[in-house]
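Give me the fold.
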Amino acid sequence: MKKSMLTSTLLATLLLSTSYSTLASNSIFQVAVVKGAVGTTDLTEGKVESGIKKLTSSEKTQDFYANKMNLCVAYLQSDLSHSNKSESACTDAINTLESVKRQSNKVKFLTALNYSNRGVARYRQNQLDAALSDFELAVKIDDNEITVKNLQKIKQLLPLEQVETIAELAD
């Protein structure tokens, strides 16, 4: 019952949330948040702690992918006391989207953005191979401007032999 309610709510939310903003929270990579969701205004205005407070106290945080996606970015933008939570929040957002049976273009787009966001989180934690894998998967799911630019950037930052090794393992 709860699963079908989540799916219905998620699909309705996807139809209402077709516009996304990007934040330059990390000067190297772009991250994406859901426009109009809880905490978005705070995050885009640089009020990260306020955004985290709203996202973690909201009853909807448990049920809506948008809150999970925004929480991922909020933790990415926060000081070191919260930054270790970003990967987990990004993974929660990915899992929420991957549980949707109907993989529309919107769901694929959001899933790709969440993998890209998690790639940024993993990069910040110095998990370079995992970050590269997330960026590559994001582009494979949906090669939008954000995912493509983030993949290009990490390939510039990593030594060539490390990028080639990851590519060989993926083949």
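The radius of gyration is 15 Å.
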